[in-house]
Amino acid sequence: FMAETDGSSFPNGGLRATHTAAAFNSWDMKSPPFVRGETLYIPSCFVAWNGMSLDEKTPLLRSMAAINTQGLRLLHLLGETHITEVTSFVGWEQEFFVVSKERYLQRPDLLHTGRTILGAPPARGQQADLNYFGQIPASVARFLEEVQREMWLVGTPMVVYHNEVAPGQHELSPIFQVSNVANDQNQLCMEIMHEVAGKHGLAVLFHEKPFAGLNGNGKHNNWSVQGFGGGQAVNLMKTGRTAADQKRYAVATACLARTLKVHGDVVRMACVGAGNDHRLGAQEAPPAIMSLYPGVGMEAHMKAIAEGGPLEGYTGESKALGYGCSNCQGISVNAEDRNRTAPFPSCGNRFEFRAVGGSQNIAHANVMINTALADSMSEWCRLVEGGMSHRDATAELLKESMSAVFTGNGYSKEWPVEAVSTRGLLNLHNTVTALAHFPSPKNKALFEKQGVLVGEEVEARTNIMYEKYAITIKIEATTMLEMMNTALIPACAKDLKTYEGAPELAGDRKALYKSLKDATSALASACGSIPHDADEKAEANFCAETLVPAMAAVRAIADQVEGVMEKSLYPFPTYAELLYFHH
């Protein structure tokens, strides 16, 4: 199955042009086609006439090939020569908000940007911490039941859906799959959710931060690397009772620590985006500093290896947990606690990359992780093939990389200072800062060495991401100006007329409303100064440094205005109406 189409009409970073436009699809034969309605859908790769990738799937498959090559090399050096294939798996957890479609259409910001670019917090948000185990609203339950049925019909075992922490927020997830299949299923699920929500009079918000002050939407990327052969399977991300399991896990975790230390900038690239800039580092989202949480016990074992100890010894044995009453039987739980402030915590049989944004394509995230890990596996293999013992090669990686292992509170004020000043980690706090690191000589060499991207593809993808960031911010700014000039500022004028006969009751409204007009004018001036003739990087930096603060200034005043304006005059559905009125 193949097809030719126009490659110049898609974001391509300069890889295609109108006079060099040929591009081709070809079926990813390890991802099953499916039928919806009267249409056969064939998961496909998309590359230019010159073989350069124009999609997210092609680099993902290349990164999986790199994991296979370096994973086999590593396992065979460990003596597990019966393994014939190594691949990465993903179990995604999709977070989202559900709102009334009618009210969604009354908010230009939701319609154009996917998030509320203004809106005062409701009296009852998530401060009571009661929503997670609360009852799913009946309208949402009906919607999710239909989504689950539709996903089963296309071969996706959707097994879990539940409330999330914020009101109006929910999550669903299927059984994990091989990475390329998991990615296809996630893209299909998001499409089906939009379609089914409309039938139920609802709208779905995948944006990373639809509502200020409430939890954002992540797409937790539960990731593992597993090997198969000789009728056996091994999970590199899980220890066990045997010496072979413990040794394999120690080596794999050391490689992962090196990945976060040496290629933390690449892993940070896995979660860039204007939306995620609002989410990372707050309300159950991990910080933008990439670190590894293997658990306190495993951290101690890693330190011991670095100081000369054996690879074996960490069993990760389940812990017995009692409830202190006779009605409930005791259960077994993971050896290590969960750390929800960590971007890359261990979860017993996998590592959960928690930083991926809710609207993101997980293929991109897994390209970054797979490629960086393949490089660290390759480095361990190089040391062993050069004459080092398994133990010494692992210790060598850990001596270089233990500073990327952190088991504390990632939300503490002290952590960013310690991470940068003491540990030498990067704090790439927003998208444009992170993007500046992506096309470095180190990273181009990394992707070329692992056969995932050539240097020109790295440059193209960097330009695409700069452009996407700038476009996103410009749409948000333009939408904000529209909402101010055509709705909120006119409403301010109407509200002031209410107090013409009783000015003493108006309070500070006149001054407040004037400050809103002044801030709006400043934003309009900033929009007029966008350097459209500059390159993608310069325009993106202008948006980050000038437009984003100008928008924040308008929002701060607009949210105060909402708090004093006569309710019937406020021109948009409020947070309370969006979060609760669809129940």
Can you walk through the features of this model?
By secondary structure, the protein is an alpha+beta fold. It is 46% helix and 14% strand. The chain has helices at 57-77, 101-105, 108-113, 138-153, 179-199, 243-262, 264-269, 274-279, 296-306, 362-385, 390-401, 414-422, 431-435, 441-449, 455-498, 509-528, 536-564, 575-580; strands at 2-6, 22-27, 34-36, 39-41, 44-48, 85-100, 158-163, 169-174, 177-178, 202-205, 219-229, 232-235, 292-293, 319-321, 331-333, 344-345, 351-353. Strands 6, 7, 8, 9, 10, 11, 12 and 17 form an eight-stranded antiparallel β-sheet that branches. A three-stranded antiparallel β-sheet has the order 1-2-5, with no helix packed on it. A hairpin with a 2-residue loop joins strand 11 and strand 12 (232-235). Helix 1 (57-77) packs parallel to helix 10, helix 15 runs antiparallel to helix 16 (509-528) and helix 15 (455-498) runs parallel beside helix 17. The longest helix is centred in the C-terminal third of the chain and has 44 residues, at 455-498. The protein is globular. It starts with a strand and ends with a helix.
